[in-house]
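Ops channel
N.P.: pipeline sanity check, posting one input/output pair.
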């Protein structure tokens, strides 16, 4: 059975969300929300975009470090959940700056009023 790239990205995002929050070592930054997953055409890499509730640089660095440290365990748990894919893509975690950008614009608009 062949699976399309979009379906695989959606499946990875749905299955990965609880795994990420369970397997990350450092819990001081709170809940990690996965916003989007993009899979390359050759299905070798999946870029996972995430957000956390804080905009502080220290919190973002700790969240990225925790995700990078737990990457192998997260990928192994994901492979247990997704059975119809021959090879699970390597995971690349990137902070999604869209929420922070939106908050910054919102603050600017409030100061203008």
């Amino acid at each position: 059975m062949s699976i399309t790239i979009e379906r695989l990205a959606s499946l990875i995002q749905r299955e990965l969300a609880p795994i990420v929050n369970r397997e990350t070592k450092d819990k001081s930054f709170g809940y990690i929300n996965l916003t989007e997953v993009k899979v390359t055409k050759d299905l070798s890499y999946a870029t996972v975009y995430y957000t956390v509730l804080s905009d502080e640089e220290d919190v973002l660095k700790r969240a990225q470090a925790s995700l990078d440290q737990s990457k192998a365990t997260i990928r192994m748990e994901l492979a247990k959940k997704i059975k119809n894919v021959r090879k699970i893509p390597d995971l690349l975690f990137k902070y999604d700056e869209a929420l922070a950008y939106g908050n910054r614009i919102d603050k600017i608009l409030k100061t203008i009023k």
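N.P.: looks fine end to end. Residues 5-112 form a domain with the GMP Synthetase; Chain A, domain 3 fold (CATH 3.30.300.20).
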